[in-house]
């Protein structure tokens, strides 16, 4: 990946008549209904954009969507990339770099995660306050990474405090049960063992998933304020662990999605 690659992607997008977006949004597994709230101006398939990679999962649409929500210009990645798909960290985070080059001023991220904190229930939301990177690598560890900014990025507050505060206030006003906690990002795609869930709890994780952290690291390198919300789709109790139920995960994502939509729409009003 080079700066020239990013510019070629941006030039292609501009040729589609895209105006400068104000906010970027990344939609996670089973969380595509926010698209219904967009006054869509243009949809571009990932495979049509130079140097973009292709989403391989059925639950990720693989489209870059431009439009407005609450009269705010947004660019939405409907579908993201994961290490377990065989992608490098550069490929996983390429969309963040392109959105920043397009002009976004903040990044909103969603994901589906398992609740390690047994005080949290499936179908609820968690605002990510901090994270633990267990993916075994960094999107800043490549030869020409310095071309994109400082690689020794401060991560003392990776999630923007003011944006997080606004999200919490919106949740309170709208009677949305919004937890706040630490997200651990693992490689996957296999789910965790009982011993691994105990380990995650011991090291301070409240939820676990397979995404988000690489994108947040790059956002911080680019000085791009970001927030991230997890939809808790299953409960990770090592003493009462049940076999994974994929249909239920999508059901729980759908259950929480209306509340997530409220949070993002109301946040956009304030930006």
Automatic annotation (TrEMBL):
<dbReference type="GO" id="GO:0004731">
    <property type="term" value="F:purine-nucleoside phosphorylase activity"/>
</dbReference>
<dbReference type="InterPro" id="IPR000845">
    <property type="entry name" value="Nucleoside_phosphorylase_d"/>
</dbReference>
<keyword id="KW-0328">Glycosyltransferase</keyword>
<keyword id="KW-0808">Transferase</keyword>
<feature type="domain" description="Nucleoside phosphorylase">
    <location>
        <begin position="24"/>
        <end position="268"/>
    </location>
</feature>
<dbReference type="Pfam" id="PF01048">
    <property type="entry name" value="PNP_UDP_1"/>
</dbReference>
<protein>
    <recommendedName>
        <fullName>Purine nucleoside phosphorylase</fullName>
        <ecNumber>2.4.2.1</ecNumber>
    </recommendedName>
</protein>
<dbReference type="InterPro" id="IPR011268">
    <property type="entry name" value="Purine_phosphorylase"/>
</dbReference>
<dbReference type="InterPro" id="IPR035994">
    <property type="entry name" value="Nucleoside_phosphorylase_sf"/>
</dbReference>
<comment type="similarity">
    <text>Belongs to the PNP/MTAP phosphorylase family.</text>
</comment>
<comment type="pathway">
    <text>Purine metabolism; purine nucleoside salvage.</text>
</comment>
<comment type="function">
    <text>The purine nucleoside phosphorylases catalyze the phosphorolytic breakdown of the N-glycosidic bond in the beta-(deoxy)ribonucleoside molecules, with the formation of the corresponding free purine bases and pentose-1-phosphate.</text>
</comment>
